[in-house]
Every structure is written in structure tokens, then in C-alpha cells.
Amino acid sequence: MNDHEQIRELLPLAAADALDEREQRRVEQHLRECGSCRSDLEGFTRMAAALRRIPTPQPPALLLERTRHAAERVLLEQAERKWDHRVLAFLLLFSWTVTLAAWPVVKFISGDVFEWMGFAQSKMWLWLAGYTVAGWLAAGVAAVVLGVRQRALRRLA
Amino acid sequence: MRGESFFAAHPYGLVGMIGAAYMSLEAPVPVTELDREVARLRAGDPDALAALLSRYQNRLFRYLLRIVRDRTTAEDLFQQTWLRLAENIRRYDPRRNFEAWLFSVAHNLAIDHLRRIKPSSLEETSPEGLPLHGEIPTRGPDALDRALEQERAGLVIAALDEQPALYRELLCLRFEEEMKLDEIAAVLDVPLSTVKTRLRRGLDRMKESLIRRAPPQTFREGGSRS
């Protein structure tokens, strides 16, 4: 491909202001000497200007209203889901905190009973673990049940 | 000590405060009206959604109509684009160009639609056809000028509609949306070199279409008037 043909390939991009500096300089240099390419560039430039002036079609007002309502519903559902997750996280964390905080109280109250039943101190950690897991499970199940019930109520509403 | 007992009693609050501080370091500060609207939308504000819809309604609809060439389909895709935007706005990275992201969502939906109805439709011309490797029709040296002078908008729209979807959308993004080349590359998810190649080919094809559609010459070939 000779220089003229290479420049010819760049003319549409020149009309679209899509040349880099080096390409722009090459084209400008060539155009000083080539009337045919100048004429072609003028044609592309006018075509680009015509493309910029095409009338813009308008969307119907009903479409905009429908779209806005549908998208707002999506935002609302997302906000509700986020709230549900936060409530669930809080309930789980609360149960963890309460089980840990209550353990010393439980131990204090029932310590003598354990000794009377013959449980060794070394098994206290086992009891703590079991007590904590039971507390978490109970809180988790309660949170899930509450969440499912709330969702069902929302669907009916 | 009071401070320690406060944090011991409110572990969730402490985690929340650390998270909020981290997030405030990550998100850029909104500087333009558009940035503020996007930030409000990310927070779930429906008024921000209405504002963005109003800002982009004409441009987005025009873009979709250019690609699919059918008003009803463009309307469906328009609604789907905004629903997709609402669903994913929390995953949107505010450091990205919002316009490019919006149009890329529209682009993906439109291209998926075209591929569903006809997998080869992206690169096909309209039924009227166009030479793929154009020989410029011999309609005289001023054919392009005549096409552009007379019935300008109608001929140009018809010539644009004749192009394959790949070129139509690129010409729309460059000349109607006036996007920069790197923004177009982001919308279409293609390299910059591909954008330039398609732009060049699209304009060459437009020229061929316009010359074919040009009104007949009013003087004999060679330049002498009849």
C-alpha cells in the first residue's frame, strides 16, 4: 500500500477527529499536495456533520413512567433485603454476646450442682461449647423463621 | 473503664464504625451534579433515579433504537436497561465513567437481543443490501454532495439504518453521543484499535450507501448541463 492509499484509509478517521498527533500530521502534509484526498476529506467531514444533525427520537412518556416505577420497585426491594440481612446479623451477634455474657452467671448458679453430680472442671469447656452452640442455633433458627414469616407477610400485603 | 466497656457492649457498633471509615476512604468525593446523583442512587434514593432517567432518557432511547431499528424492541430494552442498572447500582464502581457503564449495560442487552433473534444479525446489512467490499457506484463525482444536500436527514438515517449493527452503534456513539474513542471502547468492551477500524469501515460504508441513494444527476456525465 503506497502513501496515498494509506492516507486515504485515514481520511474517515480524520473527519471523525479520531487521529492521533502523528497521523494528523501525516494527513495534513499529504493534503497540501493532493487535491483528490482534500475533496474526499471534505465529503467525509460533511457526512460526519450530517450524522451529528440527525433528529433525536423521543421515548414515549408512558414508557418513562413505567420504567421509573419498575426501577423504584427494584430499589425498594433491595433496601428491604438489606434491612433483613442487618436484622439477621444483629440477632446472631446478639445471641453470641448473650450466651458468652450469661455463661459466668450460669456457671456461678449451677457450679455447685455440677460438683454434686461429679462433673470435672476440665469438662466445663465442653459444656461452654455446647451451651454456646445451642444458643447460636436457637437464635439462628429464630432469625430465619422470623425472616421467612416477614417475607410471606410482605408478599400478601 | 468507660470506653472499653462501651466497645465491649457494642461489638457490632465498633465493626460498623471501622467499616464506615474504610468505605469513606475508598469512594471518590462527588464533584459534579452527575456524581452526586449517582452517589444518591447508590444509597437507594428513588429521586436520584428519576433525575438520571430524565438526564439520559433521549440519548439512551436513541442509542437503542439505532441498534435494534424497531421502536417496540427499543422501548423494552430501555426499560430492561434501567432495571438492570437499579439491580446492579450497588456493585457499580464510582471510579468508572457512569455514562460508559450505562451505555455498556444497554449495549449488552441490545446485542444479546440481536443474537437471540438472529445470531448473524450483528454483521448483516438491511435487506436492501450493500456491497460488502464496496465498489463505489458510478453516479458521478458529486453524488455524495447531492445525497447530503437534498433530503439530508432522511437519506442519512436511511443509509445509517442500512449498516450492520456493529457499525450503526459505533457511528451513533461517536457522532450522536459524541463519546471519545476510549469511552466507546469501554462501552463496547473492545480495544481502541477495533473502535478505529470499525469507525473507518462504518464511514466508508455510509459514504457508499449515500452515493447509491443520491438523487440522479441533473446534468450529463462529464459535467456539461443538459
How would you characterize the overall build of this protein?
The complex is a heterodimer of chains A (157) and B (226). Chain A folds into 2 domains: 3-52, no CATH class; 61-156, no CATH class. Helix content of chain A is 84%, strand content 0%. Chain A has 5 helices and no strands. Chain A has helices spanning 3-15, 21-31, 35-52, 61-117, 124-156. In chain A, helix 4 (61-117) runs antiparallel to helix 5 (124-156). The longest helix of chain A is centred in the middle third of the chain and has 57 residues, at 61-117. Chain A is elongated and about 110 Å long. Chain B is built from 11 helices and no strands. The longest helix of chain B has 23 residues, at 46-68. Chain B starts with a helix and ends in a 13-residue tail after the last helix. The model of chain B is unreliable at 1-14, 128-138 and 218-226 (pLDDT under 50). At the A-B interface, helix 1, helix 3 and helix 4 of A face helix 4, helix 5, helix 7, helix 8 and helix 9 of B.
Topology:
The complex is a heterodimer of chains A (157) and B (226).
Chain A: H1 3-15, H2 21-31, H3 35-52, H4 61-117, H5 124-156
Chain B: H1 2-9, H2 11-26, H3 33-42, H4 46-68, H5 71-88, H6 98-117, H7 143-149, H8 152-162, H9 165-176, H10 181-188, H11 192-213
Helix pairs in contact in B: 3-4, 4-5, 4-6, 4-9, 5-6, 6-10, 7-11, 8-11, 9-11, 10-11
